Amino acid sequence: MAHIDDAQTQKANLTFIRTSMKQPLLAPDHEFELAHRWRSAGDTAALHELVRAYTRLVVSIAARFRHYGLPVGDLMQEGIVGLMQAAARFEPDRGVRFSTYAAWWIRSAMQDYVLRNWSIVRTGTTAAQKSLFFNLRRLRARIESSGAPLTDAGRRKIASELHVELAEVEFMDMRLGAADQSLNAPVGDSSEDDWQDFLPDRRPNPEEVVTSTRDSEIRSRWLAEAMGELSSRERAIIRQRRLQEEGATLEELGRELGVSKERVRQLEHRALVKLRQSIRRRTESPADLFSDVG
């Protein structure tokens, strides 16, 4: 759905556009001088003159993104950010016009803004998906010039031209053809139910929560009782190897206990056997507590 600015915002946008278009164009030599003064001496006056001269470029590029239904003022603000990034990175000695260099940064900033705000669902993450998002309408319009709808052959042609999978073209075509829907919207004109009323609640019910909590407490008690039957060295090995998010290595425990890596492995195996036997005396399903207990 297109965003409609209020009267005050529209007036501010028009003022910015008129001011930008009145800025004098820079001759190549003067542009180089300004860029060099800013780059080598940090002359902010030169930076301001350089940036002001190319705000017209921001206005021009923003107009190309207006059909995405986003506020033009926001697009121009993002473009100014891109323009400032270009000024900060521009190297005048490379012999490239600043306008050519800045256009890429301005367009990139606006594209990122569109991708972040066009839909509440993230639209594109890879370079190929971004290219598909911004080129699908143009390519589809060219293919559909005869008025016929986009066919499978047309989708395959777009996929080949943009070097993406056919499934990605189909998905993006569907995304661009559908607007975001509110879950609070009624199911139908005559219905009092909202779409959210039909969403299943996949959270555990109260009975499952109580059962899970009780089982967890029982397993914790069994483990504590079984650990109490181990020697102090075996307990240390099990705690550091099995009961920590990032378990210690055999080498680390060997250095700490003053034994070989193989001896640590033997002690760990013996401790697990003792735990298995202890837990089996308490439950018929020891695998519920230890994944490696059979």
How does this model look, in words?
This protein folds into 3 domains: 1-118, Four Helix Bundle (Hemerythrin (Met), subunit A) (Up-down Bundle), CATH 1.20.120.1810; 124-178; 208-288, Arc Repressor Mutant, subunit A, CATH 1.10.10. The chain has helices at residues 7-22, 28-41, 44-53, 55-64, 72-89, 98-117, 127-143, 152-162, 166-176, 206-227, 232-242, 250-257, 261-280. With 294 residues, it is an all-alpha fold.
**Can you identify the CATH class of the largest domain?**
Mainly Alpha
Give the total of beta strands. Answer: 0
| Largest sheet report | none
In N-to-C order, the SSE pattern is HHHHHHHHHHHHH
What is the topological layout?
Layout: H1 7-22, H2 28-41, H3 44-53, H4 55-64, H5 72-89, H6 98-117, H7 127-143, H8 152-162, H9 166-176, H10 206-227, H11 232-242, H12 250-257, H13 261-280
List keywords for this structure.
Four Helix Bundle (Hemerythrin (Met), subunit A), 294 residues, Arc Repressor Mutant, subunit A, 3 domains
